[in-house]
Amino acid sequence: MAKFQPTSVGKLENNYDVVVIGSGGTGLSAAIQANELGMKVAVLEKEEELGGNTNRASSGMNAAETNVQLHHGVIDNVADFYHETYKDGGRLNDKDMLGYFVYHTAPAIDWLSDHGIKLDDITVTGGMSKKRTHRPASMAPIGGFLVKSLLDVVAKEEIPVFNKTKVIKLRQAEDGRVNGVEVNAEGITKIINAKAVILATGGFGASKEYIKRFRPDLESYKTTNQPGATGDGLKLAENVGAELMQMNLVQVHPTVQQDNPHVYLIGEAVRGEGAILVNSEGKRFVNELNTRKIVSNKITALPEHSAYLVFDQGIRDRAKAIEFYDKVGLVVHGDTIEDLAKKINVDPSNLQQTVNTWNKAVEEHNDTEFKRTTGMDRGITKPGFFAIHIAPAIHYTMGGIHITPKTQVLDGNGDIIKGLFAAGEVAGGLHGNNRVGGNSIAETIVFGRQAGQQVTLYARKL
């Protein structure tokens, strides 16, 4: 299918039932869902490129009790998914939101499938005991695949998506309900009336201002986020009295290649398929599939504050994103483990010993050193051998706008701000103090759909 063409700004109308701000996974899911329920919808995106941070997601979409899992012989339990996510989030997750989330992941996989978007392969990410991370059978990175696929649906359903259109203000009626937006599109300011507005603007991982305000200790860190992730939705919401919550909870992703001006996130699927992490001595130092918070802290505690991901051709075959990492020059190649060790400047005998010990742990399914239990389907045995230099970087902002499980935005008194809904990374509460890999893509679809349904219920009553 030809590349998606945004609608020209000249076609921006004065009235819609629903205005969706943001064109990532959340915004597109919300727009499709609301449109299919009979709403007249417009999607507004401030950047030229559509898709937001969703484009950068690489591992997959977590879901429990799916038919896909059963096809792969994985027997799962939604309650386990709930408890593991709650524990991994430091028990700071909003329980009602988390409950809604885990029970709606399998229907979200089915909903995507109904739209021709098939996630038929599975892998595992840190903090999960089962293979819950769904991805396309091609093993392509989930983000780009999902954005392109959702835009195909948007095109088919003729939902207008306007890029380079920045919302500068939420409009409110005298009774306080949100009833439209003010936009700046190509230098022209325009007022658009709407029955309801959905904020799907993503997080603030690329906002020096918000990071400095809430996490000054991370001010010098690089970010995996796209440049537009500057917290605009938070500002819009704050200006109409919305409450922000857990804003100090910022996730640092452990495996980010940042030796070049462009920062590349190395997806968790690489570890999920069997890669290990070694320090400058060529030794393992952590359970690689512990939570992101723990793995990041262990890397930061090393004298060099960085590490190497080490893997073989067998693992590479199972994580297709590596082809891209290689193409852009991030992957070091070795014919043997010894050869690889010399190229990354670690002791060859140490690295060989580390790999031998790891392969034995895989064979016996018993990692006596670091108690790893997942991502052990294959050892590091198949030539060639590869390494990627990584260090932690700002990745995800768990805090955000305080919402209900129905995506309604709350003010500081806990009252609902009528006509305003928020979903995805712009909203806080779901993840606690640590987001599990694969849960953000699931959140975009689960709560994007929820927002689309809830705005419809709200608009029908007006």
UniProtKB/TrEMBL annotation:
Which Gene3D superfamilies has this protein been placed in? FAD/NAD(P)-binding domain, Succinate dehydrogenase/fumarate reductase flavoprotein, catalytic domain
Q: Which residues cross the membrane?
A: none
| Coiled-coil region list | none
Cofactor(s) essential for the protein: FAD
This protein's record includes keyword Oxidoreductase: yes
Per UniProt, the keywords (alphabetical) are: FAD, Flavoprotein, Oxidoreductase
Q: Could you give a GO molecular-function term held by this entry?
A: FMN binding
Question: What top-level branch of life does the organism fall under?
Answer: Bacteria
Ranges for domain FAD-dependent oxidoreductase 2 FAD-binding come to 17-441
UniProt-listed PANTHER family: FAD-DEPENDENT OXIDOREDUCTASE 2 FAD BINDING DOMAIN-CONTAINING PROTEIN (PTHR43400:SF7), FUMARATE REDUCTASE (PTHR43400)
Cite the NCBIfam families for this sequence: flavo_cyto_c, PRK06481.1
> Its family?
Belongs to the FAD-dependent oxidoreductase 2 family. FRD/SDH subfamily.
Q: What is this protein called?
A: Flavocytochrome c
